[in-house]
């Protein structure tokens, strides 16, 4: 296999042969990063609260706190985000998997998702960013960047406030074991999965390799 080198102006400067390990299969350029969180993104559209399901989401910055959401241009919720420059990120628990899936297969332009799912909606200080009381974790966000990347619009939001259900706190901190979020697994599985077993203590297990630094 051949790969090419480019300069800062995008001009091709050369090429080299590269050998892919036999253990690897090239499956084409795909944005595959696991796990993908199953989240409910909220926005008022024409003054009416609406929610859509999204999996292409992530933490973008800590200071100031920022999150990112990739949304296809055709989505009804994106219309509301543009209208208000505000949105919410709601983390559903496993108890809300049916409602989460419904919000991903139904357009808010054709159905009142809030009524069907019986969501209890509340608002914080930002207008246009509806939040779901039944979701154990809610982020109230101000949209600060809308980037047209191609098939999707990348929405960057600054978190203005975070709300956590009181029964999901341990010593005043959000407890993921009580929040019980779940993830989306794409083709070929196309299913939702709860979090699995604890495999190690973070910022601790890696110390086992520290001894090799000294030997090297």
Summarize the structure.
With 216 residues, this protein is an alpha+beta fold.
Instruction: Show unreliable segments.
Output: none
Counting H and I runs of at least 4 residues, what is the number of helices? Answer: 5
Average pLDDT metric: 94
- Give the structural class: alpha+beta
CATH superfamily: Electron Transport, Fmn-binding Protein, Chain A
Describe the protein's architecture and organization.
The chain is an alpha+beta fold and 216 residues long. It has a single domain, classed as Electron Transport, Fmn-binding Protein, Chain A (Pnp Oxidase, Chain A). Helix content is 15%, strand content 41%. The chain has 5 helices and 16 strands. The chain has helices at 76-84, 97-105, 113-117, 176-179, 210-215, and strands at residues 2-6, 12-17, 36-37, 39-45, 48-54, 57-62, 65-72, 86-91, 121-122, 131-132, 137-148, 152-164, 169-170, 173-174, 182-185, 191-194.
Topology:
Elements: E1 2-6, E2 12-17, E3 36-37, E4 39-45, E5 48-54, E6 57-62, E7 65-72, H1 76-84, E8 86-91, H2 97-105, H3 113-117, E9 121-122, E10 131-132, E11 137-148, E12 152-164, E13 169-170, E14 173-174, H4 176-179, E15 182-185, E16 191-194, H5 210-215
Antiparallel strand pairs: 1-2, 3-15, 4-5, 4-8, 6-7, 7-12, 8-11, 9-10, 11-12, 13-14, 15-16
Please describe the structure with a list of short key phrases separated by commas or semicolons.
16 strands, Pnp Oxidase, Chain A, globular, 7-stranded antiparallel β-sheet, 3-stranded antiparallel β-sheet, 216 residues, alpha+beta
